[in-house]
Specification:
- By secondary structure, the protein is mainly alpha-helical.
- Helices cover 84% and strands 0% of the residues.
- It is built from 19 helices and no strands.
- The model has no long low-confidence stretch (mean pLDDT 82).
Length: 489
């Protein structure tokens, strides 16, 4: 009954989480279309470097806390100590903010000459990093408390506000790419304000001296679990973002812009489908292990959702690979479509990465975060080495190949080494079935696209290809791989 109730909740929360990813994706597409049509690829390349840097810094400072919160908040809640948890979490965020402010102020004194064209972004980016830290951590709190509707509402409102405020800033104040940073910052601040009440920020200074020992113990607990995750995130950053810096170094900002724009399409092609499911599964499992610690139960649970991920994600990856040029032209415009060829390469890598997140759950539950760090380190070194070889020779195509290989290496290591503890059981039969189905159906769709709808506009060509999904669903049911049926059993 527990499993059945869990499946029911996951089904419900997955639907709730769809707008969490769909709305920001649509908003980002609108902003991307605006940027690529009013600013040059070189300006977009510079902006991308700035945004990637803020993502690296904010995630480096926040993600280890988010993952620790998702792991340990249920323990505090079960013990009736949620007030203590909230108070210590607020202390920790305040300390990080003050230290980051001090470091940023010192660096600014010595960096102006080195920043050059990036100097206008410095303080807006600093503020955006701070707001992102709070938004990510508080969002993780709501997520692990299974408040899916709140997470959805906050993310949707934040995305809409970002769009509105960015356009207002561009039109009324400053027609410059930095307005995109300011818009994102102000949107997050407006959403963070109501979050502060839920985590009881107003109570953080009550009895501060008596709570210092509790705070230090709290930090030690989260640091022990989360410190390897800092290294893990550095590795994921190398896998995801350093290719931009290397493309700029070896090639040009123009190629960075083309690569980054098409990279975004590849990310969204997979993320819009698989992220809502994973967002629903992860907090539920972290809460369930407080009651059911059976190794067999956890293994079967994770294996089931790995199977569902494979079945649901596969057709979208193939579809977007077939229509890579069409979607690139629709969203980005003609000057960016030269990078459309990297979309299917990256989709393969993102598929491997996202399926690896399910295997990664076995390590998080077993508190084997050091192993995750070692695996991502190997994958990052592999990616970095391949970038050094491929980017000078093949440009952004080489970067796409290196990135995908790095993702595949990480997932393979997760699978191979999981057998020593909680096993990650990949449903290989289901994977082979749906891959074969998708590849067989891909052939006629490609022929239709090439010979029948060649002279039609991109959107019409994509619409003509949508029967691909109907045939896929039919064959999946025929081969008895219906994910909806499996979620009920």
């Amino acid at each position: 009954m527990v499993a059945l109730n869990g499946i029911s909740r996951i089904s419900k929360d997955t639907v709730i989480y769809i707008p969490v990813f769909l709305t920001p994706a649509l908003i980002n597409i609108v902003l991307l279309m605006t940027f690529t049509r009013f600013f040059t690829p070189m300006q977009y390349g510079t902006y991308t470097i700035v945004v990637n840097t803020t993502i690296i810094i904010s995630s480096l400072l926040a993600q280890w806390i988010v993952l620790s919160v998702q792991r340990y908040r249920p323990e505090y809640s079960r013990a009736g100590n949620i007030g203590e948890f909230n108070r210590n979490l607020n202390y920790l965020l305040l300390v990080i903010t003050l230290v980051f402010l001090l470091v940023s102020s010192i660096l600014y004194i010595f960096l102006p000459e080195l920043l050059q064209s990036y100097q206008i972004y410095y303080w807006p980016s600093f503020l955006f990093v701070i707001s992102s830290i709070y938004f990510m951590v508080f969002g993780g709190v709501y997520q692990v408390d299974l408040l899916a509707k709140h997470v959805r509402n906050f993310n949707v409102v934040q995305s809409v506000l970002k769009l509105v405020l960015t356009f207002l800033l561009i039109v009324l104040i400053n027609f410059d790419p930095v307005s995109f940073i300011w818009g994102a910052f102000f949107a997050q601040v407006l959403v963070i304000v109501p979050m502060l009440r839920y985590v009881e920020t107003d109570k953080m200074f009550s009895e501060i001296h008596r709570n210092m020992q509790s705070f230090l113990a709290f930090v030690k607990k989260l640091w022990t679990y989360g410190f390897p995750l800092i290294g893990w995130y550095i590795g994921t950053t190398i896998l995801n973002l350093t290719d931009r810096y290397m493309i700029e170094y070896f090639r040009s900002s123009n190629e960075v812009g083309v690569y980054s724009a098409n990279f975004t399409i590849a990310v969204q092609a997979v993320a819009l489908i698989c992220n809502p499911l994973f967002f629903a599964i992860q907090p539920l499992i972290m809460n369930e292990i407080q009651q059911n610690t059976s190794k067999a139960y956890i293994e079967e649970r994770i294996s089931l959702f790995t199977r569902i991920f494979i079945i649901i994600t596969m057709p979208f990856g193939v579809y977007f690979s077939i229509y890579r040029e069409e979607i690139s032209e629709i969203i980005l415009g003609d000057q960016f479509t030269s990078g459309a060829m990297i979309i299917p390469i990256l989709i393969i890598g993102f598929f491997a990465w996202n399926i690896g997140l399910y295997g990664q759950l076995t390590y998080q539950i077993a508190e084997r975060t050091k192993a995750m760090f070692y695996f991502i380190l190997v994958a990052a070194v592999c990616n970095f080495g391949l970038n050094l070889l491929f980017i000078p020779k093949w440009g952004f195509i080489g970067a796409a190949i290196s990135t995908s290989i790095g993702f595949i290496v990480y997932s393979c290591l997760l699978f191979i080494c999981s057998y020593n503890h909680i096993k990650w059981k990949i449903p290989w039969v289901a994977l082979m079935k749906v891959t074969l189905i998708a590849l067989v159906l891909m052939v006629p769709i490609m022929l239709v696209n090439q010979y029948v709808s060649e002279d039609m506009i991109p959107l019409v060509r994509m619409i003509i290809g949508t029967p691909f999904f109907l045939f896929y669903i039919g064959l999946v049911i025929v081969f008895r791989e219906n994910p909806l049926k499996q979620m009920r059993t």
